[in-house]
Each structure stands twice: as C-alpha cells, then as structure tokens.
Write a structure and sequence with these properties.
By secondary structure, the chain is of the alpha+beta class. 31% of the residues lie in helices and 24% in strands. It contains eleven helices and 24 strands. A hairpin with a 4-residue loop joins β5 (76-83) and β6. The chain starts with a helix and ends with a helix. Bound molecules: zinc ion (ZN). The site of zinc ion has 3 residues, from loops.
Length: 488
C-alpha cells in the first residue's frame, strides 16, 4: 500500500513537472490538473500477428533439418503494449525456436519508423518451440530469407496493432508454482558410464537427457525453477485484455516433428483464454507464455517412464497444468489502475570460445571422411560447427535489457539461460517479484554457469548454439543488477 501510494504521489508530481515544462506560463489554471490525469492514465493494448510459414519450410531444433509437411496449429507473434502516460513498453513473444539479433533489430527498426517506439523499449523473444521455421542457422538447418523478412514485418505489425488497440487498463501480477512439469535434464551418472564427447574428450561429468530409468543415474546436476509468473491486464470494468505468463521449461515436444506447431506455448494461450472466459472479444484477448530460464530444464521425468501417448497429448497436458496454475493466481490478484513503467538496455561485450587451429584441423579431417549430404554422428555435426566458427570474432555485443512494471522486475537475456541464473536474478533483484525472459532480443546460445561449464555435457559443447565465454553468466547477471539499480 505504502509503495503504491508513494507511486501515486510521484506520478502526480512528475505529471505536473512535465505539464509545466510543456505548457510554460500560458496554460490556463485548470490545465495542469487535466494533463496530470492524462499522464496518470494507464493504458494497454494487445494483438497477435500470424507468423505461420509455407509448407516445405525448414524446421530447426535438432541436429538434422526437417521440412514442414503439415501445419498442426498456427504460429503467432503475441504482442502486449503498456503505457503509463509517459513511458511505453512493448513485449512480443514469438512462436519460434530462436530468432537472431539481425531479424529482431529489423523488426525494431520498423516499429520505430512506423509506430514511433524506440528499440530500447521493445522486448522481442522466442518461445523455443522446436516445431517452427528456422530463423537462425542451427546445426544443419538454414534460415530462409523470405521467411525471416516476413517474420520481422509481422512482429512489427503485431506491435503496431497492439498500439492501435491501446485503451484504459488496470494491471496486476502474481506468482504461482507448477513443480510437476519441470525436470533438470543434466544428470550426474555413475563413474565410467558417460560416453566421450564429440570432441573426443572423456572429462564430461554430466549427461544431458540420459536414458530414462537408467540404473546409472546418480542425481540431477542442478535445480529447477517451478514458478509461474502472471501479469494480468484488464479494462477498468474487468474485461481481460492480456495475460503475460512466464515458466521455465525448454519446450514439451509434439510427437510430430515435421509438423508446424507452437507447442505448449500456443496451447497455453488458448486454454487460459477459455479459463478466463475471454474468447469472442473485440479486440481479442491475447495470452503470451514467455520462456523463463530453461537452458537445462525439460519435461522428461528421468526417474520414471511415461506411458506412450498420442501426438500432442503431453503438450496439451502441460499447457493445461500451467494454465490452471496461472488461472488460480488470477483469482487473488489486486489490480492497480496506474503503475510506473521504465526500461534500461545496454550492449554488453561477451567473449567467445573460439576453436584453436588444432581443433579446426581435427574437425576438417573428420568432415573430409564424412559420407553423404547429411551429417549423421555428433562427432561430424560438431566438427562442422567447429569449422563454421573458425572466423568468429573474439567477443560479441549482447543486448541486456531490464524493465520495471511498478514493483515488478523483468530481465531479458538473449540466451538459453540455465535455471541457476534465473533463480539468482529472482532472489537478488531489488524488484519483487522479478522474472526473466530468455532468448530475448537475440539468440547467443546456451548460458551455463561457470560451475556447469566445469561439469561439461551437451550445453557446454562449443557450437553456434554454445559459444560464449565460461564467465558469461556472471557478467550478464552483474549487468542486469546494474540496470535494475538504475531503474529503482
Ligand atoms: Zn534449446
């Protein structure tokens, strides 16, 4: 109550200052009051933009490429715009595995040119569904320029349409828990049971996705984050406008790898709309499920096999469970009719783990021996990655962004972030609660902690999907804490 009240006072004071600056001495006596109430108005708008590809499009997410044979469900860029009268923020969550910085920068340029919103005020993330078109070159999948241009334009249109839909709103947030759907996928195994890695090394101490119910399982190599963060936006009369949720789960998988699907992120959006009775609205209600910090988290219970299921059943079950928890959180939310918004973003230079000349030479020898058009073994696949990374720069600038929505904190990181880092951000942020959206504003590969780098395993193996220096996570964490301090 105290902070809400001081927020109101601060808002009025700021509004008066701005009004005075704009109107000078010529303002009629009642203008400051009028302008203050306008500056104090909280508005929200939401819209979705269809980003479904043509059949035949490349689908990424695995070592080998796939081509879309069918569209199971449409893909969307789900967009939410918030405006406190002075500051406007846009969040777009896209049904994609990962989207490179160039494509997102192109979308942001269009948003700035056509809709007047500065790039720093825009957060665009990928959900990490593994059944969406290739937008970033990953392993043996290559992006189609026609699709990525279409994607950038459609994201910009979605944000523009959300701006068109801006209307008076109230906002609330809360945090629930759904621990039953998240599992750490990196396991410590009995000595001598972890095979050599694709570089010939035998020093990996963890195995990603070990065989389920293996007698060699010892324990997971890290934690999970079971929180379901919910941000709800309604009209002053209580009509749902949008719901932004956040859960730390890599993806679920559909069981139909060559079919395009938004995975459980899309099913969640549909389900929460049903639970809130928000279908058939004009403008339509928009739900966004953003990915938290799930670089090492998936939906597989390694201790216990699941009975076989038809395609799309597990995806729906997880979506229903997370939506049920989000809905439960919604029942006890306290809405505020105005909160301050602010954002800070910076470009952080992070070092790159470049291959040595000897490593490149070994990789070239392996590739010279590979037969056929498609590489089959992990050794060959990672050899190709090594060769492709030969001329990588020694460091890369990453966009690190922090938003403040009232007392709620939001961190955006362009990586597949390990749960440890997400939990630390939640704990150390001055804003309570805080949550993180990963694969936001770019895609710079896995982000293990230095401790997890020591343990080795898939997510640490150098490739275009894991190339940042081993100290990248603490550097990004420190940068975010600096941004949060500025936002206070
Ligand atoms: Zn991934």
């Amino acid at each position: 109550m105290h902070t809400a009240f001081s927020g109101i006072i601060l808002g009025v004071v700021l509004a008066l200052v701005v009004c005075a600056a704009l109107d000078g001495f010529s303002a009629p006596p009642d203008a400051p009051v009028e302008a203050a109430s306008k500056a104090r108005q909280f508005r929200a708008g939401a819209a979705t933009s269809n980003i479904t590809p043509r059949l035949g499009t490349s689908i990424n997410g695995y070592f080998n490429d796939r081509r879309a044979t069918h569209i199971h469900d449409e893909l969307h860029a789900r967009c939410l715009v918030l405006d406190d009268g002075q500051t406007r923020l846009a969040i777009a969550v896209c049904d994609s595995c990962m989207i490179p910085r160039e494509v997102l920068d192109a979308a942001k340029r269009q948003i700035a040119e056509k809709h007047g919103l500065a790039p720093e005020h825009v957060l665009i993330s990928a959900t990490h569904t593994h059944t969406a078109p290739t937008s970033a070159a990953v392993f043996q999948s290559e992006p189609d320029r026609h699709y990525t241009e279409f994607l950038a334009g459609r994201i910009a249109d979605g944000v523009g349409r959300a701006i068109n839909n801006l209307a008076p709103a109230k906002i609330a947030w809360g945090v629930g828990r759904e621990p039953s759907q998240v599992f750490n996928r990196r396991w410590k195994m009995k000595p001598g049971t972890i095979p050599p890695n694709p570089f010939g090394g035998t020093n990996d101490l963890v195995k990603m996705n070990p065989p389920i119910e293996s007698p060699n399982l010892v324990e997971p190599a890290g934690p999970t984050d079971p929180e379901v963060t919910v941000v709800s936006v309604q009209s002053p009369a209580g009509r749902p406008i949008a719901l932004l949720a956040n859960y730390s789960l890599h993806y679920v998988g559909t069981g139909r790898d060559a079919e395009v699907s938004a995975d459980y992120y899309g099913a969640f959006a549909e389900r929460i709309g049903q639970l809130l009775g928000a279908d058939r609205q004009d403008p339509p209600f928009v739900a966004l499920l953003s990915n938290g910090t799930s670089g090492n988290i998936n939906n597989i219970n390694f201790r216990q096999k699941r009975p076989p299921q038809p395609p799309y059943e597990q995806m729906r079950a997880v979506a229903d469970a997370v939506a049920a928890e989000a809905h439960r959180v919604c029942q006890s939310l306290q809405y505020q009719d105005w909160v301050p918004l602010s954002v800070r973003a910076t470009k952080l230079k992070v070092g790159v783990r470049r291959p040595s000349p000897e490593e490149v030479e070994r990789a070239e020898t392996i590739l010279a021996q590979a037969k056929g058009k498609e590489l089959k073994t992990p050794e060959q696949v990672f050899a190709r990655e090594t060769v492709l990374m030969k001329d990588y720069p020694k460091d890369m600038p990453l966009i690190i962004q922090a938003m403040r929505i009232g007392d709620l904190g939001l961190a955006a990181i362009p990586c597949e972030v390990f749960a440890e880092t997400g939990l630390a951000i939640k704990q150390q942020s001055p804003f309570k609660p805080t949550f993180t959206i990963e694969l936001a504003n770019g895609c710079s590969g896995y982000l293990p902690t230095p401790e997890q780098h020591q343990l080795g395993g898939y997510e640490t193996w150098r490739a275009r999907s894991s190339f940042l220096e081993t100290e990248a996570a603490p550097k990004i964490f420190a940068t975010l804490m600096g941004l949060f301090a500025q936002l206070r």
